[in-house]
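I'd like us to work through together how a protein chain folds, taking it slowly. To get us started, please write out a protein record for me. Go ahead whenever you are ready, and we will take it from there:
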Amino acid sequence: MRPERAAVLPYGLPEREYPAFVRRWDRVYCGSSFCPGLAPAAARIAAIYRAGASAVTVLTPFVTDASLAKTVKLLGEVFRAGLRPQISVSDLGLLSALRAGPCRRASFTLGRPLSHDFLRMPAQFLKKFFAENGIAMIETDEADMASGLSSGGLKVAFHYPFRYVTMTRCCPWTGRMGNCARPACSGRRRTFTASGMPGRLLLSENAYFFRTGKPPIHPAVVRTVFTS
């Protein structure tokens, strides 16, 4: 059985182009695992469904107290409207808040900013933690770590072709702390070399990545997630 094929909706893609985009994929991701300023509006999530997406996952980042409240409110609006996207969480406090509110019956995944540490925990612990917290799968871009999960019955959503390295709370595009009222990156990217780093780094949003190859073929990888 082939993995579910998913892709991240490009930031700034006009709504009129949503139908052509969603037809290419089994699932559409939207939002950001890294920057709270790139959270999609409830209307944007609804537009993805209207465009014909059969499955949607909303990416969420680490959050401050203020952005936590905004994210809970946003996703509460989406669920009260009858939509049921999967939610990728990168903050355990946000996961707790969502499960205590209107999104308590949502399907969750563990986002990439958290997965680096969780992937290195015992598989049986992860299986128990996921079951207790409604987490369906772990999101990663580490092929070598993903290969060790199938023995515990764990599922992987594998992101490509960029491997996450690190992120910053100080916006690299504006030099300021806090969220942009209008995100300064707006889909922009920059590549550069850094001392001690093997290869060129890619700056996208407020995070840094290396370019990688194709997703691994492995029983644990039940979904692939492409970022253009």
User: Anything to note?
Assistant: The mean pLDDT is 89. The first helix runs from residue 18 to 22. The radius of gyration is 17 Å. The helical segments are 18-22, 42-50, 65-80, 92-99, 112-118, 123-133, 143-146.
